[in-house]
Design a protein that fits this description.
There is one protein chain. α5 packs across α6. By secondary structure, this protein is an alpha/beta fold. Strands 3-2-1-4-5-7-6 form a 7-stranded mixed β-sheet, with helices on one face.
Length: 231
């Protein structure tokens, strides 16, 4: 699984028990791609959060500046100093070849432009990664990759709602949501702000829509890896 999460703390605020369940309890390989961190201590907070969730793969930290402008302006700012966010994301998908990609809400959850931008770029990257005419440099290294399943937080079509309240054996019976809350408290610079890990609500962190699939529609709708053959 590859999770595109914009800021340190977004990985639990908007995706809830995703990491504790899939990385910690199910033992899936989960790679978090982080777009923005403003200070070194937020990078350290992210690492502590991921380890708390059971993620054992070091994240990719892109180091883009935090922006609240229109999506095109954010992309332009992220391209400063030849960062090439569009091609970088294609290359990451081709390199790691995830079975499942998970993206932010297209409207940026509470409207954050960087969230919107990372989702938009993620959608473009998923499509471009499968296209033999796109980004020849990464094709030479990794080949193309057609992501089997891509989910978007709060996407209205083909929705499923995960149960983050089931006890997880890897965490001595604590739930994914409880572990996500513990992980959020690793973000010491953020815990005194208005954010918190919630169960349900307007930005329900358990609600995802299947935006793109090459393995068929979800029928049981209780697993982001439905229709992905077990290795």
């Amino acid at each position: 699984m590859m999770l595109f999460s914009t800021h340190p703390d977004d990985e639990v605020l908007w995706f809830g028990g995703l990491l504790p369940y899939y990385a910690g309890d199910q033992g899936k390989d989960v790679l978090v791609i982080n777009a923005v961190y403003a200070h070194y201590y937020r990078r350290q907070e992210l690492l502590a959060s991921l380890w708390t969730c059971g993620v054992d793969i070091y994240p990719v930290m892109l180091g883009y500046p935090n922006q609240q402008d229109a999506v095109n302006e954010v992309i332009r700012e992220w391209e400063v100093k030849n960062r090439q966010p569009k091609d970088r994301m294609v290359a990451l998908i081709r390199q790691y070849k995830p079975d499942v990609v998970v993206l932010h809400d297209v409207d940026g959850e509470y409207g954050h432009s960087a969230h919107k931008t990372f989702c938009y770029l993620g959608q473009q990257a998923v499509n471009r990664a499968a296209d033999e005419t796109q980004h020849a440099e990464s094709i030479k290294q990794w080949g193309t990759w057609d992501v089997p399943k891509t989910y978007i937080h709060l996407w209205a079509e083909d929705q499923l709602r995960m149960d983050w309240n089931q006890p997880l054996s890897a965490f001595d019976g604590k739930t994914g949501l409880q572990i996500a809350d513990e992980a959020f408290h690793c973000h010491l610079s953020q815990v005194n702000k208005q954010y918190r890990v919630e169960d349900g609500g307007e930005y329900d962190n358990a609600l995802f829509g299947l935006w793109r699939t090459r393995v068929g529609a979800d029928l049981v709708k209780n697993d982001l890896f439905e229709n992905i053959p077990a290795e």
